[in-house]
Amino acid sequence: MRKFFLQFDNVSIRRKFILVYIFCICLPVVAGTIIWMAFTSQSMQQNVIHYLDQTFEGAASDFNILTQTAVNVANQVNADNTLLNDLSKSFSTPVEHYDLYWSSLRKRFNMYLVSNPEIAEVSLYIDDPHFINTDYFRVLDDKARNTQWYKMASQTDTDIMVYPGSTAIAITPYSNRLTIVRKIKSPTYLNNATNYLLIELKLDRVITKVKDEGGSVDVYLTAPGDNIIWSNQYTNKFNLKNPSVLQLPPNNNYYILQKSIGPAPYFEGWKITGVYDKFVIFKKQIVVLIYILLITLSLSAFSVFLIWAVLNSMRYRLSALSRHIKKVSEDHLEPLMLENTGQDEVGLLIITYNKMIAEINGLINDVYKLEMQKKSIEVENIRAEYQYLQAQVDPHFLFNTLNAILVFCVKNGYTELAGVISSLSKLFKRMLTTGGDLIPVTEELNFIEKYLDIEKFRFGDKFEYEIQISPEVIESNRFIPKMSVQPIVENACKHGLQSSIEDNRRLVIKADIIDMALVISVRDNGSGMDKEKVAAIFNKLENPKSELNLEAGSYDETESGVGIQNVYRRMMMNYGERFHFKIYSIPDQGTEIILRIEEV
């Protein structure tokens, strides 16, 4: 797996986007479409069968209610003794017959029609040649006996028979109707003859429901023998030889659902059949699939455009950055300038790169300046060493002369002068000693003590000094540059105490460790300085362009600036920002200079 990802890192960004598009968009769409086709085909089949079953179940229920109502009306008429008694009467004149019809018989049949709107007509055929034909009553004559309904009803053994069609007397037979035929006979009524009650029903409600909810289904209403009573097709396309008889197609290409209808035993063999072409489902799937593909292609086209835009944006900027980095290897350290770097990851990378180039240029300039400063310092060191060697004509001669004077003072009892000469000799010896620039703090303070002995000889009883070294300084064995404190002490004696009018001149030197930092304080009670003079000294120290005149040895009409400038520059060269320099001075009260060196 790790090897695969390593190889994948070598593929270009364009090909990576193409692979992402193929595997993350195209393949999921194709796989999803195949899975959708497989699952929806079965789901749609189940939905169609369930929908047809619910539709046919509702149609069968309506048909049951409709036919059962007609059967109930027929049974009521057969059980209506008053009606049968009226019909059994003999009439001497037609007027008597019409009087009875208009006063009684017509109202009873009107009642059934008003209360049952699905009943189209009610007709009672009476086997009595003397009966007069009226709206609801007719004579069962030879013409009636030649009808199809009579032939079927007279041959059946049951009292109720269903005739698949209209029995109404009309020029054009009514469609979408069937007739319930009820035999009316009694040994005491109607001369014991067989009479027939015909109740014609409208099937419009049932058929309309099947039409509306059947949709693209071929629906057939069949009587016994699969004779087609009604269909939403003009012909039985599955039986072209005899279109009036239903012939079912093979189940391979069609979904077929049959439902028995009507109450038994009157509608035994009556069925409602639905035939649904499987190709219709496939066509619906194709239509849905086309919509899905159109939406998918639209989204894919948009995603291709978006990927192209993202890729083009990244490729342009990354290519420019790559070409510019190659120039860096040829020492062309210039920032990458584009019209719009952007704020995305690539844009931030370019911005960071430009910052890096700017920092590199800055570092190069700093290094160049440091090299120039280093060369300047080396030149100054060589010049100083030359001047030092030039001034040191014969240091041993001077040192030997001091020793001769010291021997003379000892022999003649000049004890005080001998001590001063001894200290001066040790000072010359240390100053002429070569070695490292860094020495222990204790060694520097011992040298200062020899120098202060000479100053005390000069001032006499009017000068006192004190050197305080904390045990932490001795134990820490800290190192400082040679002659880094002595110039500060010399300035304090020469410019602070010497110009003071006080007789109790005092100098205190302290060395201590405070917060892990070495702190050296030189404090005198001499003439002090005002704020302007202190500010002038700091201005010279902090402004590299304002150099001191080392040859003249003067600073603001004194020589104090030379020693302080020398100490400050040497400390900054050794410790940098770890070194802190402070001056606290009040006129006629004294001055305190503090050197602080932070621990690494």
UniProtKB/TrEMBL annotation:
Q: Name one GO molecular function term.
A: phosphorelay sensor kinase activity
UniProt enzyme class: transferase
Kindly give the InterPro entries that the UniProt entry links to this protein: Bact_2-comp_sensor_kinase, HAMP_dom, HATPase_C_sf, HATPase_dom, Sig_transdc_His_kin_internal
Location relative to the cell: Membrane
Q: What is its main location?
A: membrane
Q: Which residues form a coiled coil?
A: 365-392
TM regions (residue ranges): 20-39, 288-311
GO CC annotations on file? membrane
Keyword Kinase assigned to the entry: answer is yes
Q: Does the keyword Magnesium apply?
A: no
- Segments forming domain HAMP: 312-365
What keywords would UniProt list here? Coiled coil, Kinase, Membrane, Phosphoprotein, Transferase, Transmembrane, Transmembrane helix
- List the Pfam families hit by this protein, alphabetically: HATPase_c, His_kinase
Write the Enzyme Commission number(s) for this entry. 2.7.13.3
Q: Which PANTHER family match?
A: SENSOR HISTIDINE KINASE YPDA (PTHR34220:SF7)
Could you tell me what this protein is called?
A: Integral membrane sensor signal transduction histidine kinase
- Organism equals Ruminiclostridium cellobioparum subsp. termitidis CT1112
